[in-house]
C-alpha cells in the first residue's frame, strides 16, 4: 500500500544494479586481463615474501643503515645551508654527521641512565607486583581460564623477570657499539655521497623524470614527517614526564623517553607508552593516579597526534590508517623495534619506488591514502545529495499545497 501524500517520509525508488563495463580500463596496454594479471600478482606477492625474509635475515645491518639513511635525509638541508654559506664540503658533511651521531649518543646515554635507575628501584615493588599477579590469576580462574594459562600470566608479574629483561637491555647496550659504528660510518659516507644527489637528479631528469619526481617527493615527505614528529614527540615526552613526576609515578624520566620513542609509532605507540605509567601509577597512588595518567596521556595524544600533527604534516605522508597500522606490524616483524619506529619512512620509500615512479601505478595513490581529490569529490557528492533532498522537499511541499 503506497504512503499517503501528506506522509513526509517517502521510500525512494531502489537504484538499479550497475552493469559491468564493456571496455577495458584506460591507460593499459591490453595485456593486464585474464590469467596474465593473476600470474603477475602471484609473482609479485612471492617476490615480496622473499624480499621480506631476506631483509629480516640481514636486519642487524639493514636496520642501522636505514636509520642512517633517514637521518641523512633529515640533515641534508643543514649540510646544504652550510656549504651555501662558504663551509667546505668535507667540513660541512663531517660536522652534520658528528652532530647527529652526538645527539643519538646523548639520547642513548640518558636512556641507559633511566633504565639503570628503574632497575635499582624495581625491587621495592616486588610484593605489590606479586599481589597484582595473584589477584589477576584469581579473577581469571573465576571466569574459567585454565590453571596453566593463569600460571603463565601471573608469572609475568614476577619482578625477577622485569629485572632480567631490563638488565638484559643494559647489557645489550654495550653490544650497541657495533650498531653505533655502522650508524656513524653511514652518517659519514651517506652525506658525502649526498653531495652529488642534486646534480645526479638533474642528470637523470631528462630520461627518468618520473623517478626523479618520486625520489624528490620521498625525501621531502620523510624530512617533513620526521622533523615534525621529532619536535612534537619531544613536547609530548616532556609534558608526560613532568605530569608523571607531579603525580609521583616512579621512573618518570624513563616513561617520558618511552613516550618520545613511541610517538614515531602510529596508532600503536600510544598504548605501548601508557601501560608502564598506569601499572606503576597504580602501585604508588591507586586508581586516582591511574585515572590521572589516562587523562593526561589521552589529552596530550589527542591534541598532538590527532590535531596538531595532521595539520602540520599535511599531505606529506598520505597513507591510510589501515595501511599505516599494517606497516608498523610488518616492519616490526622484519626489522624489530627499529622497524616499527621507521615504519612510515620505509613505507613511503616503497610507495615511491613502486607507485610514484610509475605514471600508470599512480592511480593507486588514492587507494592507499592520498585522498586530496577524493575529499573534493565527496564534498561535491554531498552537496549534490543535499540539493536533491532540498528539491525533493520543495516538490513534496508543493504537492501538499495542491
Automatic annotation (TrEMBL):
The keyword Transmembrane applies. GO terms for cellular component: membrane. It comes from the Bacteria. One of its GO terms (biological process) is transmembrane transport. Residues 1-30, 382-402 are annotated as: Disordered. It is found in: Membrane. This is ATP synthase F0, A subunit. The lineage of its organism: Bacteria, Bacillati, Actinomycetota, Actinomycetes, Micrococcales. It is a multi-pass membrane protein. Its main location: membrane. Belongs to the autoinducer-2 exporter (AI-2E) (TC 2.A.86) family.
Amino acid at each position: 500500500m503506497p504512503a499517503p501524500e501528506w506522509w513526509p517520509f517517502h521510500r525512494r525508488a531502489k537504484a538499479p544494479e550497475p552493469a559491468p563495463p564493456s571496455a577495458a580500463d584506460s591507460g593499459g596496454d591490453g595485456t593486464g586481463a585474464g590469467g596474465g594479471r593473476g600470474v603477475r600478482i602471484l609473482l609479485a606477492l612471492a617476490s615480496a615474501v622473499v624480499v621480506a625474509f631476506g631483509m629480516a635475515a640481514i636486519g642487524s645491518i639493514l636496520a642501522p643503515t636505514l636509520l642512517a639513511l633517514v637521518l641523512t635525509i633529515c640533515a641534508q638541508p643543514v649540510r646544504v645551508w652550510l656549504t651555501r654559506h662558504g663551509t667546505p664540503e668535507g667540513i660541512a658533511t663531517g660536522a652534520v654527521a658528528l652532530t647527529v651521531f652526538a645527539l643519538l649518543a646523548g639520547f642513548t646515554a640518558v636512556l641507559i641512565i633511566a633504565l639503570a635507575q628503574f632497575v635499582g628501584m624495581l625491587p621495592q615493588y616486588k610484593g605489590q607486583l606479586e599481589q597484582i599477579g595473584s589477584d589477576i590469576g584469581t579473577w581469571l580462574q573465576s571466569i574459567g581460564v585454565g590453571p596453566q594459562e593463569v600460571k603463565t600470566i601471573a608469572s609475568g608479574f614476577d619482578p625477577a623477570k622485569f629485572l632480567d629483561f631490563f638488565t638484559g637491555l643494559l647489557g645489550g647496550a654495550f653490544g650497541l657499539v657495533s650498531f653505533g659504528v655502522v650508524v656513524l660510518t653511514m652518517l659519514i659516507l651517506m652525506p658525502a655521497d649526498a653531495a652529488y644527489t642534486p646534480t645526479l637528479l638533474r642528470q637523470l631528469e631528462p630520461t627518468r623524470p618520473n623517478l626523479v619526481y618520486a625520489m624528490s617527493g620521498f625525501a621531502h615527505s620523510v624530512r617533513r614527517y620526521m622533523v615534525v614528529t621529532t619536535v612534537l614527540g619531544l613536547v609530548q615526552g616532556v609534558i608526560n614526564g613532568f605530569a608523571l613526576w607531579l603525580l609521583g609515578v616512579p621512573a618518570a624520566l624513563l616513561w617520558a623517553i618511552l613516550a618520545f620513542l613511541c610517538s614515531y609509532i602510529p596508532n600503536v605507540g600510544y598504548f605501548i607508552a601508557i601501560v608502564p605509567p598506569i601499572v606503576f601509577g597504580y602501585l604508588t597512588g591507586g586508581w586516582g593516579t591511574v585515572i590521572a595518567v589516562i587523562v593526561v596521556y589521552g589529552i596530550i595524544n589527542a591534541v598532538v597526534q590527532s590535531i596538531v600533527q595532521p595539520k602540520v604534516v599535511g599531505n606529506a605522508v598520505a597513507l591510510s590508517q589501515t595501511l599505516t597500522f599494517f606497516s608498523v606490524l610488518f616492519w616490526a616483524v622484519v626489522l624489530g623495534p627499529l622497524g616499527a619506529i621507521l615504519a612510515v619512512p620505509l613505507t613511503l620509500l616503497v610507495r615511491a619506488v613502486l607507485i610514484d615512479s610509475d605514471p600508470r601505478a599512480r592511480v593507486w595513490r588514492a587507494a592507499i591514502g592520498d585522498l586530496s581529490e577524493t575529499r573534493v569529490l565527496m564534498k561535491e557528492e554531498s552537496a549534490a545529495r543535499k540539493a536533491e533532498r532540498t528539491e525533493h522537499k520543495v516538490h513534496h511541499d508543493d504537492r501538499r499545497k495542491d
